[in-house]
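Q: What does the assembly look like in three dimensions?
Context provided by user:
Components: three
Sequences:
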Amino acid sequence: MKTYLIATTALLGSTFAAMAEGQLNLYNWGNYTSPEMIAKFTEQTGIAVTIADYDSNTTALTKVEAGASGFDLVVPSANYIPVYVRQGLLAELDHAKIPNISNIAAEWKDVPWDPGRAHSVPWQWGSVGIAVNTSVYDGDPNTSELFLDPPEELVGKINIVPEMNDVLNMAIFNAGGEACTEDLTILRTVRDRLMAARPKWLSMDYGTTDKLSSGDYAASVNWNGSTMRARVNNPDVVYGYPKEGYPLFMDSVALLADARNVDEAYQFINFILEPENAAMISGFARYADGVAGSDKFMPEDMKTAPEIVTPKEFAAAGHFLPTCDQSAVDLYTAIWTELLK
Amino acid sequence: MKKQHRQQRSKGANGWLLSTPALLLLVFAASGPLLIVALYSVLEKGDYSGVRWILSGDGWFRVLFERDIFDQTVSLADANLSIFWRSVKLSIATTLVTFVLGLPTAWFIATRPARVRAFWLFLITIPFWTNLLIRTFAIMEVVRNEGIVNTALMKAGLISAPIQIMYTDTAVLIGMAYVYLPLMVLPLFAAIDRFDFRLIEAGYDLYASRWQVLRGVILPIIKPGIIAGFILVFIPSLGAYVTPRLLGGGKNMMIGNFIELQFGQGQNWPLGAALSTVLLLIVLVSRVIYTRASSRDNPHG
Amino acid sequence: MAKARSFDVRTLPGFTAIAILSFVLLYAPILTLVVYSFNGGNSVNQWGGFSLEWYVVAFNNEAVQDATARSLIIALWASVISTTAATMAALGTTRRGRFKGQTVIYIIINQPLMVPEIVTAVALLIFFSTVKVATGYTGLGYLILAHSAFCIPFAYLPIRARLEGMDTAMETAAADLYATPWQTFRYITLPLLMPGVIAGAMLAFIISLET
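A: Here is the predicted structure of the complete assembly.
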């Protein structure tokens, strides 16, 4: 018994020692953080990084809002940043501690959801479209009808990612509405079409990259980078840009107000704004980053990838999602919950 | 007489005293939180998470009824009821499957020579040393479209396209039976291990068939073990959420996932708390039924 | 004398076959996963030769990380605390005849066994998020406490089973030889009880790691 206790104490001691050396707790989307980049950061700074995953913006927000999550950094999508700020969950960034802040690409320096980048710096951005395995369905992939009214080949084989705003807004665009609309006629159409389509879906699951690669999903509402990763494994996978309209997103790294490893967090933020390091993030998850000059370090295949370089004809159909009013959020959450159960 | 009484009292006092640390821990970290769950179920929901400290019956209302988002008409929440029904059905099925596999397994282990018995028992418990998620991923590899079952069937020429098992109730059932099988085997083994095999001799001497011996002699005697196994499998199945989440694909929900949803994307903690309370009540009721069933035939047990 | 029979009374038709099947079913998936996971590709089911990369990637998942240092520390503490509390409770509730309130103690001790996983998870989420916000403390302490409580019945059951099967003669003899209650416990009861305590501690440890 005594040795048992001593062993425990020793183990505890060593953990605390590790903490003293520098610890950073990152709360990020699953399968989104380049392990090589993290390894490089730890090597350079001696700071150990712990990563916890989430599968949707709401999950992350709920956990953070519940209080004392223990995380230092979180990576919300653009339309969620103002919500975090309004709830007082984020700390204002001290730009003096981030010399690399000037590396942010011009178009991302001042954004409507975070004026002057007071609370966040870019992580990655991309689009939400539809990934289709052409060996199962070889029709036109560039339409949101594929999940709202799946063609026979895809019935029971299509997956929907469980991200409320992406899925609902794609359906709203299809019905001719604008993001964040509170037009009840449009929303009712959206709800009814989604509920009617639901039995034809296989699942509403996360982790699409692997399952598209392996053929477990014949199609999925999916993000562009994840689709590129699947296509690299399985050449049959193509990415469709719904011509009726599709959401664009940018996920940004933000410092939580109750973060305990603030200095470490600043070091990390500065680190990822280094073009070479930003390119490591992009090279892993296959999304564009918002750092000027990172393309020089990017893997060659990303510069021409059809998932990353949006074809001209579909570029106009992409819309950035604004932050909706609370009344819209309540409506959307009600529709979404009905859909999930 | 009086002395004996005092002795009795001090025994009781000592019993309570020695149990105090365990009781304090349990009341603080297990019972206390449950009471708070009950409390949260009658509060008003917060914007994204948590609650407002205002009394509200909305959480409970929405367990049974739903209000249409657009025309505000109230109707019975049949989606909720079907989730509950699916959970109970799948949990009963899991219990039966583990019993059909577990009884022969426990019997097999109990009838091994004493020196190798521990080895077989150990084999049953090893999977428990593996993380639940990893075990669920393992089952996924078996049932997925390109998993072993489909690959083998296709190689054998029995099917031409993979059977969709993944993301169905069958997948959830297979997963739960796999995860909970050891919980059925262990109590059954404990009961059979104490079994007096001369009783079987007696049964056969009376010209009973093997089936009659199993039904008339063995099953009644190991009944406490069967009941323990049923409880140990049924209750975790009813509250499972990891295995159904991964194998059901977020569409075929069980109660556990439905509750989890309210604390995440659904953003309705009071409803989640009310659903948790309902689940707890179902478990209590099934407990009482099991206990009644076991004490009816076995007044001394 | 028993009559000679053409079969062993201890075997039942089909039982051995089903038992073997159970063992195969228990182990086949784990073995498959091990084989599949040793491939270099991004996707688990495409063969790409043996590599440990998949395990490394898995380390970036919260799920697998949970099985590392943090959980080990929690499990170690939880098993020590719960086994100690459970041993005391077992000594308090066995071999001293029935006393008032014994049933209440049983019910409280066994409570974690009766509460479904998701309800426990939800209860702890609500409880600790409230306490954390109120106190500002975010360490492992709460988890250790919660795990300790949850593991008590798992430690308690084997210890109690062992105690119930133990003869009291040795202890009575020690007491007759003027050993103090502590000495009796330390040199007689505890060593005899040890197999139960170890079994209980192991079970508590596994359960804590599992949760």
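Follow-up: Chain C has two domains: 15-58, 62-210.
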